[in-house]
From TrEMBL:
Subcellular location: Nucleus
A GO molecular-function descriptor: zinc ion binding
Region Disordered, annotated ranges: 59-129, 875-895
Annotated protein name in UniProt: Ribonuclease H-like domain-containing protein
Organism annotation: Favolaschia claudopus
Swiss-Prot/TrEMBL keywords: Metal-binding, Nucleus, Zinc, Zinc-finger
Cellular component GO terms, alphabetical: nucleus
Amino acid sequence: MPLSESAHGALLVARDAFIEQQDYGIPDFKSVVETHTVEGTPERAAWDAHILALTDALEDDKPFPEAPGSTATAASGKKKKKSSPAAAEESEQQKRHTRIRFQRKLDLEGAPAAGEVGPGRTNKQQVGRKRDTLVDDLIIEEKEVSGKDKAITAVYCIACDHRTSHRNPARIKEHALQCPDVATIFPTLFAKLVQTNADRGNGVVPPPKVRTKQKEGIVPGNSLPAMDVDQPLPDASSSTVKEYFTPLKMTDARQALLDLALFQLVICAALPFSFVENPWLINFLLIAAPNYVTPDRSAFFIRLITEQLSAFMLALQRFLSQRVHLTLSFDGWSSRAHDEIYTFHTTLPSRRSFLTAGHVFKGVSVTAAALFDVVEKRIFSMFAAVSYSAVVGDGAANVRAGKKLISEKYIWIINIYDPCHNLNLFLKDLGKIFKAELGIISAISNFFGQSNLGTAQLAFERARQGINTGMKSASETRFGTTYIQALAVKLCMPALVTCVAAGTIIFATKATKRLIPYLTPGATHYGFLAQLDCMVKLFEAGANGITALEGQNTTCADVFYVWVTIAWHLNKLLGDLNAGLVSYRDKVIEVYNARFDQMMTESSHGIFLFAYFLHPLYFQHGGLKLVMPALKEGEKFDLEKYPELFKTFRNSARAILKGEQTRTGKKSKSDADRLTDQLVRWAVGLPPFHQRVYAVAGDSPLEYWKGLQRDSNADVLATVAIIVFSIMPSELCDERTASLLGWINAARRSSMTPEHLIATAQLSQWYKFGLTEGNYTHSAAANVKVSDVGSSSTVASTPSLLDLLNDDNVAPQDVDREALEQALFNQPDPYDLAETERVIRSSNRWAVEDFVRLDSESLKKLIAPEKKKDADVVALSQAPTAPAAATDEDWEVDD
Ligand SMILES: [Zn+2]
């Protein structure tokens, strides 16, 4: 029996209320459905299904499904509205929106009045429920005709024209919070939005009136007695204290507190949003907090995410506003649904990082200009550009150009090319020398990635032979892991050979058969082993260099030091006749020099070399080729007499000081002159640098320079050095977040919107770690471990997250096995070596030798301290030395 028109009307009203009112909720909607439809009829079923479909649409931000029709209304029909040509209508609409936008800006932001103003607000207050004026300010409403000629109210973002087909306040607020245009065109409105949300989140404003219906729990299917949730609660007079505190009445405040606790549980434990509707949770809540009204997930999460994100942004804004010399870094990431997402982090001088924003690029190509725009609109609108002193990103063309735009407009922001990416490319270049061997390594590793049985057999044999390391998988983006993989194959080789000979591991298929000669004693096997050994030796310094730079405390000086260490190690290795690598020498130097030049030139002001020069430890022991003419106290400085290297440093220092003076708005020519004077003092060793007393162990160069801020012979240089050592030359925080996002995305919530994904990551970081400086221990020098030449390499233990990811790679059974095997075991370029294809200039001299003497004795002590000398390095640095020009052996004054 079809529904009466009045029943259908009541259902439509309930439907609209459900969509518009975040607090109306499923229970209210359901009770209306139960009142107006009869159980067991198609109408009841249709409306029940409609509730679920609406909930999904709200959750996934999809268009709302049409309401089930009643025969009565369908029969009566509606007058067909004539639609004008779509294009003309659209441009008319755009003009109208522009006028409204202009008028709204006048009303809300007090923009200067112009001659022509359009009509005022078009919002007519609807009868009935009170509407939120903040929401009205954020939108333009349009009466439109839907596909089925139904009149609907479409809603457009006041700033960017983003369209949704219904007036849903929670959705509108959520969009506005992440809309770059609202933040920039309507700053006052945006600030009001953030503040209002945050006030709700912080409990300043009571939460909206809560739902009145409770959900039903579930009756356990086992033999436990069904729980009697209606059992009367104890009263104060007859109960224990514990029972007394069971709330008899659920206050708004307590409901809000429980909502927040539940929200935090879901966010921090990375549970799917549907968890809050899990009947077993509801059961638990009915017992733990009988009067708590359990939420409907869609309204619940949109409201709390918006409120909590606003509270977080305000708290972060307050926290960062008291700090300077922050580092901004960003990196691209793509979700399982192929949304292009960029994460933006802010790193403090203490190296604590915060996921500051995430931006989803929808239907826009991510150009340098687009990235620059997002940085200005979403970061600098909320967190002042003058708080930042560096911007870091990888080598992608749009990222490089985007960073350039930033450092050109904000000249105090130093442009940094992420050194780990650079080292990664260096290793790839080296890998090309061993392309054939890498193909075999990849195939062998993939075999064990696929074969549980093979892995078990190998593990058994390894245990028998006492080999601790198992096979590893490699990450596509991090070539350093290839070193770990190659090393694993090398170490496992004796066990592999035994297993193949004994027939416990069988390579029988077409694609894997070709591996047998490499794993069976013979010419191919021994040739492969020899090449494998060379490769592992050549990769080691670079791979460990990446590991060293991935530490939380990396400074710009450490980046240069890592390149020094690599050259030092490779030079020794390639010159050692026993190591058998002499024939690779020219090729390796070529590769090194090309990437070294990139490290030197891609970042602003030669920052890495300059930092090395300003680092108390590296300056003294790093083998720097700086030969300064002697200069006594009071003697006049003459730039002409100073070496080119010193002039380079002076240019770096002046460029940074100029940026800093622009940042603070305090131009001073005399400070620029004093800077040169203080640089000479530093280089030559005049007071206050005549006694080079550094508490090296556990002290950071940043702390060292902070101690010199008030010394009139060091203050300007200290200002520059503090910037150099405050900035974080790595976007590793973005990589960590990307793997966190990937995990959340893959593990439980593949249908989650990318905006919610980012909010989840931001909020869980906030809840778990708060807004603090962090507490990272500083070490004096980057520690790049290298093995002794000739000895068998040792494995630097690295966390093997990759192993965890293996489960994702398990191949389904019904695929073309042979094609899959070809792909796994016979890839022409498994490590994407072609990425680095280019012309490399020829040389047989290490480029780093322009600046550093690789045969310096003190450098040797720094890089490869003999065992008992570990303490000496510290003692040496702590001991006061005489003025530099007189006896400082570290400068190699003699040449
Ligand atoms: Zn917008």
